[in-house]
Amino acid sequence: MAVHEDKAYLFTGRPTVDYFDINSQKWGTITTRFKRSDGQPGAGRWLYPGNDLTDYTMQMVNGRLYVFGGTHKKAAIGCNLLVVLDIASCEWTHLSGTVDPKQDYTCPGPRKWPASWVNKEQDTIFIMHGMADRAAAKYKHQPNAADDAHGCEDFWSWSIPNGKWRQERINGNPPCIRAEHACTYVRFH
Hints:
This protein is mainly beta. It contains one helix and 15 strands; from the N terminus they run ββββββββββββαβββ. 3% of the residues lie in helices and 34% in strands. The strands form four sheets. The chain has a five-stranded mixed sheet with strand order 5-9-8-7-6, with no helix packed on it. Strands 1-2-3-4 form a four-stranded antiparallel sheet, with no helix packed on it. It has a four-stranded antiparallel sheet with strand order 10-11-14-15, with no helix packed on it. The model has no long low-confidence stretch (mean pLDDT 90).
């Protein structure tokens, strides 16, 4: 979950986004939609098959919820879709990648369980590690399947103002490849 203005938001791949109001201790929802890719008014096509997404990472930055990666019924291996929800307008924007499990060398590859964090300046999101679950893809007869999962070693940053990815380099001894990460909430003032 990601917190904005005393509400903790939970995205599950549905157009309806759940939130928990920290003050009233009650659950609520907001109804969202994707912006059309052609810039015309009205709702665009919903990107998540089956209205389902799990195993992703998300960050809240200045009232905007960024969601990257994860799995759904057509991508057990994971995906590399990066989208952002403007909480005020309830509109999603497609930023990068695809919901399909396709490799694109200009951005992080498809994966589930990546780690993410935002820098102190709130202008860069970092994505690291995760796993391309090739064994799950094999079990579900999906593309890019294999007997073993693939731990992702790469490290990327998304520039919010520039709207583009950059592959980063880790100096020194990098942390071991891992998939299911522990997370710590840090609030910068």
